[in-house]
Specification:
This protein has 490 residues and is an alpha+beta fold. 41% of the residues lie in helices and 27% in strands. It is built from 13 helices and 20 strands.
Length: 490
């Protein structure tokens, strides 16, 4: 005879026995502490003790499954009641977070049965001479009953009853009642997990605006608590929206991504959802929120209800935007810097239509800028750079991209610009700079600019080639007298 296993939902023997009554009384006696949450650890210990005394077994224990891999299982001896100290096993070194290899066929079958939610009844003497029999004999176990503890459709652990004195045969009624005990343990664990998460949420809410939410996709409605939507309201209320109403509160560009992310989460095996979006508060102002959810999935069923939390991350987003701005912006002129401009250039080349419309790229360099710094000082030099920037901004079009890419070196990208128009615009810049000196305090500062232009006509041209071509044209402008525009074609 091997291990007797069975589906707990198909037990049919309902004969009431005196032991069954004792088990039921034991469960009811210790149920209050478990269900009311008053010391769930003590409640489980009390339940095991009542079950042990009612069944007259030697030991009642609970193993927690910490990790399950294909080749090993990590467990912890979490709870135990023993009828005599000679039966005590909890606290022994080899039962403290113990790791067991999954190699023996009998052990593999035992684990698979527990994962399916079945009970396991064992009479040690009747087992074949294999690993399991040796294991039970070493512990002095003559008969054993184990039942899985299932939480959120997952095998959390095992409750077991060991008898070291008798070869006891458990009835279907006994097993059914002991299954009820496993339900109480599951409820206590879930309650404690919920209490811990609620405590974490309360701490979180003390520091930032944080709301609970739930989306029922099948019914098409969503509710959330008011902390984020009404941040200054002291009393927390529950806000209910239809799905359409909720989507209207989402910043328009974020609506489709939110729907797509939510549907993918519902249909996929992933257990976590996270996305950032802007929503409209009840005061009419938009704020950034991070929406997250975590839920167990299994059996291939689509769960139409998602629950989670969302918190206001507007301050964080502002910091991110500030850091992004600082990383891509020249602090003196307020123009984009070289790194950002190179990204814009490459994006423009990648998005260029076929056949391409001609456009131009220019590099501008202020002539003899070092002499301005040497004669008037760097503060005046900075003033000249800022005045130069304002002048160019007034001349170029809103669609043009203007950047500072070096000390006194600037760049302009002129999209959809025929060569003649680009040359005319850049020559206008040259004349304007040369004919309008800058007045600073009592000094009149005359200066000029040299410009190298690359006109891009070839569909095979790249951003790097445009930079090199414009740089060669700029060098030619410098060598031929400065204060001029030199154009090359790609």
């Amino acid at each position: 005879m091997v291990i007797k296993t069975g589906n707990l939902n198909k037990l049919v023997d309902r004969e009431v026995t005196s032991l069954g009554n004792d088990i039921l009384a034991a469960i009811l006696y210790s149920a209050e502490e478990l269900m009311t949450g008053k010391g769930w650890l003590e409640g489980i210990n009390k339940l095991l003790a009542e079950l042990g005394r009612a069944t007259s077994v030697s030991r009642v224990w609970v193993f927690q499954t910490l990790e399950l891999q294909h080749d090993y299982i990590l467990q912890d001896y979490a709870f135990e009641w023993h009828a005599h100290k000679k039966y005590k096993q909890i606290g022994l070194p080899h039962f403290n977070r113990f790791k067991s290899p999954i190699v023996e066929p009998e052990y593999i079958a035992l684990i698979e049965s527990r994962k399916r939610g079945e009970y396991q009844s064992v009479m040690t003497r009747t087992l074949p001479d294999d690993w399991l029999k040796s294991h039970l004999v070493s512990q002095g176990v003559k008969s054993m009953l184990t039942l899985p503890i299932i939480i959120e459709n997952q095998w959390w652990g095992t409750i077991g009853l060991d008898d070291c004195e008798r070869e006891y045969k458990w009835t279907a009624n006994d097993i059914t009642l002991l299954r009820t005990a496993s339900y109480f343990i599951s409820s206590a664990i879930v309650r404690d997990n919920y209490r811990a998460k609620q405590h974490q949420l309360d701490i979180l809410k003390e520091n930032i605006a944080c709301s609970s939410w739930e989306l029922d996709w099948r019914r098409g409605h969503l509710w959330c608590t008011s902390e984020v939507l009404i941040p200054n309201e002291k009393q927390v209320t529950r806000q209910l929206f239809s799905l359409r109403q909720w989507l209207r509160r989402i910043y328009p560009p974020h609506r489709k991504p939110f729907l797509k992310t939510t549907l993918q989460f519902l249909k996929s095996d992933t257990s976590t959802l996270r996305c950032d979006l802007k929503i409209l508060r009840l005061d009419g102002q938009y704020c950034w929120v991070e929406v997250s959810s975590s839920m167990a999935k299994g059996n291939g069923n689509i769960n139409n209800v998602i629950a989670g939390i969302c918190w206001d991350i507007t301050a964080r987003k502002r910091d991110e935007e500030r850091l992004q701005h600082e990383a891509t912006t020249d602090p003196l002129t307020g123009l984009v810097n070289r790194r950002k401009f190179e990204i814009l250039m490459k994006s423009h080349f990648m998005a260029c239509p076929q056949p391409p419309r001609p456009f131009s790229f220019a590099i501008l360099d202020i002539d003899f800028f070092k002499s301005i710094n040497d004669r008037y000082g760097h503060a005046v030099g900075d003033y000249v750079l800022k005045q130069f920037t304002q002048t160019i901004r007034q001349i170029i079009r809103p669609s043009d991209h203007f950047a500072r890419i070096g000390g006194e070196e600037f760049a302009i990208l002129l999209p959809d610009t025929p060569p003649n128009d680009a040359t005319s615009l850049l020559k206008k810049i040259c004349r304007h700079i040369f004919t309008r000196p800058i007045t600073h305090q009592n000094d009149i500062i005359h200066y000029s600019v040299s410009i190298g232009v690359a006109v891009i006509e070839s569909p095979k041209a790249t951003a790097d080639e445009a930079f090199k071509a414009a740089d060669r044209a700029l060098y030619q402008a410098k060598q031929t007298g400065r204060n001029r525009v030199i154009t090359v074609f790609l």
